[in-house]
Amino acid sequence: MGILTALACSVILNLFLLWYLIRLLRKFFFVSESFSDLFLTMRSFEVFTKAMYSMDAYHGEPMIQELMLRIRETLDAVEEFRDIFEYTLDAELEEELNDTEEEEAASQAQ
Predict the structure, then answer these.
(1) Which residue has the higher pLDDT, 89 or 74?
(2) pLDDT at 110 over 70
(3) Per residue, what are the HEC states of the chain?
(4) Are 41 and 77 in contact (CB under 8 A)?
(5) Residues 6-35: b if buried by 16+ CB within 10 A, e if exposed
(6) 27 vs 52, 84, 99, CA distance in Å?
(7) In this structure, what is the dihedral angle of CA atoms 86, 87, 93, 95, given to the nearest 10 degrees?
(8) Which of 3, 9, 37, 47, by CA, is between 20 and 30 Å from 55?
(9) What are the C-alpha distances in Å from 44 to residues 29, 36, 83, 85?
(10) pTM attached to this predicted model
(11) At residue 58, does pLDDT exceed 60?
C-alpha cells in the first residue's frame, strides 16, 4: 500500500510540474516575441530618423543628431535583452530593415 501511495504522489507531482513548465514556456515565448517586436520597432524608428536626418531641411540639426544617439543607446540596451530571447526573431523583417538602411547609406554616399 505504501508503494501505491508513493506512486500516486509521484504521478500527481509530475503532472503538476508538467503543467507548470508549459505555463512557463508560454510566458517565455510571449516575452521573447515582445522583445523581438520592440527591437524591430526601435530599429525601424532608427532607420526613419537617419533618413530624416539626411534630408536637406534637417541635415546637421543637433537635436536630431542627439535623438539618433539616444535611439542607438536604447536600441543597444534592447538588443542585449533580445539576445537572451532570440528564439522567436522575425529574421525576414530584420533583414528588410538592414537592406533599407544599406540602400539609404548608399544613396547618401552618392
Answers:
(1) 74
(2) no
(3) CHHHHHHHHHHHHHHHHHHHHHHHHHHHHHHHHHHHHHHHHHHHHHHHHHHHHCCCCCCCCHHHHHHHHHHHHHHHHHHHHHHHCHHHCCHHHHHHHHHHHHHHHHHHHC
(4) no
(5) eeeeeeeeeeeeeeeeeeeeeeeeeebeeb
(6) 37, 14, 32
(7) 60
(8) 37
(9) 22, 12, 18, 19
(10) 0.54
(11) yes
User: Which region holds residue 3: left if phi is over 0, alpha if psi is between -120 and 50, else beta?
Assistant: alpha
Contacts 24+ apart (CB under 8 A), 38-45: 38/78, 39/75, 39/78, 39/79, 39/82, 40/90, 40/93, 40/94, 40/97, 42/71, 42/74, 42/75, 42/78, 43/75, 43/94, 43/97, 44/97, 45/71
CA 56 to chain centre: 32
Which one, of 97, 66, 53, lies nearest residue 79 by Cα?
A: 97
103, amino acid identity: E
